[in-house]
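Hypothesis: this fold can be encoded by more than one sequence.
Test: take the structure tokens below, design a sequence, compare later.
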């Protein structure tokens, strides 16, 4: 499955919440997320544009692989996220580092979630407060290869309808690494 998303720096979260409600989005709660990123021992994910993430959300944990970004207006990439049976990523981080993976950085954020069904497509919106970076909004949908172009168009159109401009192409991880440099 492909994740099609756009991310925007956000100055006014309250105003965006109001616009989301006006287009029919439904608030789905607020969660704290901690995303530990690891790099492969034999290839540099910064070069291959891939990501391996161990995510903790409350008492749930997930492992996620993200493939290279595909050339398009929206950030589109293969993503596979699987739940971990153990509700902590600490043990998995230890196993992977013993296998040669190395910790890159941890992204911590407060994420406010909204959902919207429109024209047969499910959208997820988030308002993120990212530790060390500030506030961002994301507009996302999923697609297969055949519906990728339509999904990108839908994400771009919905972002424009919400008044979101000046998309940030970098991931939170990329922004944190740049900020540290």
């Amino acid at each position: 499955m492909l994740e099609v998303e756009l991310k925007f720096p956000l100055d006014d979260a309250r105003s965006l919440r109001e616009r989301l409600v006006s287009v029919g989005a439904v608030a789905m709660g607020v969660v704290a997320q901690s995303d530990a990123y690891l790099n492969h021992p034999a290839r540099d994910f910064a070069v291959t544009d891939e990501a391996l993430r161990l995510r903790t959300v409350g008492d749930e944990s997930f492992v996620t692989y993200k493939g290279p970004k595909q050339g398009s207006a929206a950030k589109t990439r293969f993503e596979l996220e699987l739940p971990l049976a153990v509700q902590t990523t600490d043990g998995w981080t230890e196993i992977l580092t013993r296998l040669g993976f190395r910790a890159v950085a941890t992204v911590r954020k407060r994420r406010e979630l909204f959902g919207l069904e429109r024209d047969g497509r499910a959208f997820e919106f988030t308002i993120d407060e990212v530790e060390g970076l500030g506030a961002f909004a994301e507009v996302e949908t999923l697609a297969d290869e055949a519906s990728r172009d339509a999904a990108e168009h839908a994400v771009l159109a919905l972002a424009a309808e919400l008044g979101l401009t000046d998309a940030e192409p970098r991931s939170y991880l990329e922004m944190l690494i740049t900020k540290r440099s």
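The chain has a mean pLDDT of 94. Residues 148-161 form the longest helix (14 residues).
Hypothesis status: open.
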